[in-house]
Amino acid sequence: MPNIVRFEPFRELVSVRELMDRLFEESVVSPLGLLNPFTGGGTVPLDMYETDQDVVVRASVPGVKPEDIDVTITGDVLMIKGEFKEGTEEVEGGCFHCKERRVGSFTRSIGLPVAVEAEKAEASFENGILKLTLPKAEAVKPKSIKVKAEEKK
């Protein structure tokens, strides 16, 4: 038995609109792929989580040397800057069919959820992952208060 599909004349208009929106975003809003972390310069994907003592940030920066990364904390904003230098070589006597490796500088700013002690921050780099451990300021660390029962007289 054949399937009956309801005719919806505006279905095609919606898909054309979505295509136009994507075209506009790619060419005007983000012409160099700045919103896509896997093409162009742009930004770097990261994870941020919080423990009782620290705020920990892990950023993916494959192909970047640790000495080419600059990390700063200003107030409650963490900024990671660097540059992808590899992948700029040209091929003699040939042409690329696909070229997706990043080239260019990147900057990533993110607000910190709590106050941290920037001077005690630690950074490590392994297998293209930058790990920042930012100790929380004493004022925001959880404190335990013991409750004492009063004796009735």
Describe this structure in words.
The N and C termini lie far apart (89 Å). By secondary structure, the chain is of the alpha+beta class. The chain has one helix at residues 11-29; strands at 46-50, 54-60, 70-74, 77-84, 104-111, 122-126, 129-135.
Summarize the structure.
This protein has 153 residues and is an alpha+beta fold. It contains one helix and seven strands, in the order H-E-E-E-E-E-E-E.
Features:
three-stranded antiparallel beta sheet, alpha+beta, Immunoglobulin-like, 29% strand, 2 domains, four-stranded antiparallel beta sheet, single chain, 1 helix, 153 residues
List the helices and strands and how they pair.
Blueprint: H1 11-29, E1 46-50, E2 54-60, E3 70-74, E4 77-84, E5 104-111, E6 122-126, E7 129-135
Antiparallel strand pairs: 1-2, 2-7, 3-4, 4-5, 6-7
Name the structural class.
Answer: alpha+beta
Calculate the terminal CA-CA distance, rounded to whole Å: 89 Å
The portion of residues assigned to helices is 10-25%
Number of helix segments? 1
Major sheet: size, sense and barrel closure?
4 strands, antiparallel
Strand tally is 7
Q: For the CA atoms, what is the radius of gyration?
A: 25 Å
Overall tally of structural domains: 2
> Any idea what the shape is?
flat
Q: Any low-confidence stretches, pLDDT <50, length ≥5?
A: 31-41
User: What spatial order of strands do you see in the largest sheet?
Assistant: 1-2-7-6
CATH class of the largest domain: Mainly Beta
